[in-house]
Design a protein that fits this description.
By secondary structure, the protein is of the alpha+beta class. The chain is built from nine helices and 14 strands.
Length: 283
């Protein structure tokens, strides 16, 4: 049996989609992003083949904080348990190190224990857990007086509010966008502020964004931190501003008091994720 890991090619789509189309009951996002991933210069997509037939894939993407993000790992059911996912992961680590990434990250659903075992084999460790909450579908949220859009000129205050918040510490200092986590570094926060994505109310600070997949659109509070009362007022002010979004999500790290406050306001947990990290120093 000849096993080979190489960069993905257009011809790999058909054999890979033949099994990926059935993942998650036919709702896997990979078929929708294959073409864009194949041509996206911000990352590289790889396949693992057995005797010349593609049976697995993954992707490594290079983010604005200088990290590498691993995503899209899939292996044909008939070839699982043979170390192919490990080969893909180790290959991505080599690529990330060649690009100078000092940290690699990935995420997995909190209940995907098989994936967690595989992630441990490539020496990633749990960094934080997050829950994603959404308001009831019929809930109308109205802007609250006092929410202030922060600018690049407010950088010192923005960074101060973020760093002092318990959510920054509990969440390993990242924000989420389109299921991807990047560190809230000075340059990243500056870019967010320049795009009008950073908001403050009292001592609470938030980062907002929009995401989408196919025809689905979601409005995100990608990071929220600060005193509970101020943070909840800020949540109420920011959600519902988008006219395109179908879903409205708030990303909150485990053990944050904001979880209890969101539940008290009728928000429901949509899903939960674990953030895993591996530093370049780990090999």
């Amino acid at each position: 049996m000849e096993v080979k890991v190489r960069e993905a090619q257009a011809a790999d789509k058909a054999p890979l989609m033949s099994f990926i189309k059935d993942v998650w009951g036919g709702t896997d996002y990979i078929p929708k992003v294959w073409e864009s991933w194949l041509h996206d210069k911000r990352g590289k997509m790889f396949v693992v083949s057995v005797d010349g037939v593609p049976v697995g894939m993954n992707r490594v993407r290079f983010l604005e904080d200088g990290s590498a993000w691993f995503e899209g790992a899939r292996v044909h059911p008939d070839f699982r348990g043979r170390g192919l996912a490990t080969l893909l992961g180790e290959n991505s680590m080599r690529v990330a190190k060649e690009r100078g990434a000092d940290v690699c990250r990935l995420t997995s659903g909190s209940r995907n224990l098989a994936a967690h075992r595989q992630i441990a084999r490539i020496k990633f460790a749990e960094a934080a857990r997050f829950s994603v909450y959404e308001p009831p579908k019929a809930r109308r949220l109205h802007p609250t007086y006092g929410a202030e859009e922060m600018s690049v000129g407010d950088m010192q205050e923005v960074l101060r509010l973020m760093a002092k918040s318990r959510e920054f510490r509990l969440g390993s200092g990242v924000f989420w966008h389109d299921f991807t986590a990047a560190a809230l570094t000075h340059d990243v926060v500056r870019g967010l502020a320049d795009n009008g994505a950073v908001w403050r109310l009292g001592e609470a600070i938030a980062v907002t964004g929009e995401g989408g997949e196919g025809s689905g659109m979601w409005e995100e509070i990608c990071f929220i931190g600060g005193p509970t009362q101020d943070a909840m007022r800020l949540v109420g002010s920011l959600l519902g501003r988008s006219k395109r979004a179908v879903e409205r999500w708030v990303f909150v790290p485990q053990n944050s008091p904001l979880i209890h406050a969101l539940r008290k306001e009728g928000f429901n947990r949509n899903f939960a994720m674990i953030l895993f990290e591996r530093r370049a120093a780990n090999g």
